[in-house]
Amino acid sequence: MERPGGGRLFEIRREEEKILESTSQVLEVVKSLKGKEEGEACHLRRIEKLEGALLQVTKRSQGDHKEELRKLYKLEDKLASLTLSNA
User: Fold this and answer.
1) 20-55: per-residue pLDDT in tens?
2) Would the pTM of this model clear 0.90, i.e. be above it?
3) Domain residues of the chain, as ranges?
4) Given 3-state DSSP classes, what are the helix, strand and coil percentages for the chain, each rounded to the nearest 5?
5) How far is CA 53 from the centre of its chain?
6) What is the pLDDT of residues 3-22, one digit of tens each?
7) Model confidence at 1, in pLDDT bands (50, 70, 90)?
8) ∠59-65-66 over CA atoms, to 5°?
9) Spatial separation of the C-alpha atoms in residues 49 and 20, rounded to whole Å
């Protein structure tokens, strides 16, 4: 024989189990999103680091090119001077 309210108690427990299951699923999704956010943050930090390195290399390369151009201009000036003095 079923106790009064036993059916209702069973329904309440079944609903509680559904709620706990849903809560577990939500928690897994939140953990997954948190992991993705951390991964994205890591990638962004890596991108920033690489951009900084690229900027340094570009500046160094530009500096090297400027120095080489200065040397070339000096050589041109010397050549022009030698040409005039030999004329």
Assistant:
1) 999 999 999 998 988 889 889 999 999 999 999 999
2) no
3) 1-61
4) 95, 0, 5
5) 14
6) 556 788 889 999 999 999 99
7) very low
8) 90
9) 43
Tokens 């577990």 — which residue? 24
Tell me how far apart the alpha carbons of residues 85 and 77 are, in angstroms, rounded to a whole number: 12
Tokens coding 15: 């609903």
Residues in the chain, overall count: 87
Question: Tell me, what amino acid is at 61?
Answer: S
| Distances from the Cα of 59 to the Cα of 40, 43, 62, 66, angstroms | 28, 24, 5, 10
Q: What's the pLDDT score for residue 8?
A: 85
DSSP summary character for residue 36: H
Q: Which residue has the tokens 């209702």?
A: 8
CA distance 8 to 24: 24
Q: Which two tokens stand for residue 81?
A: 């001077």
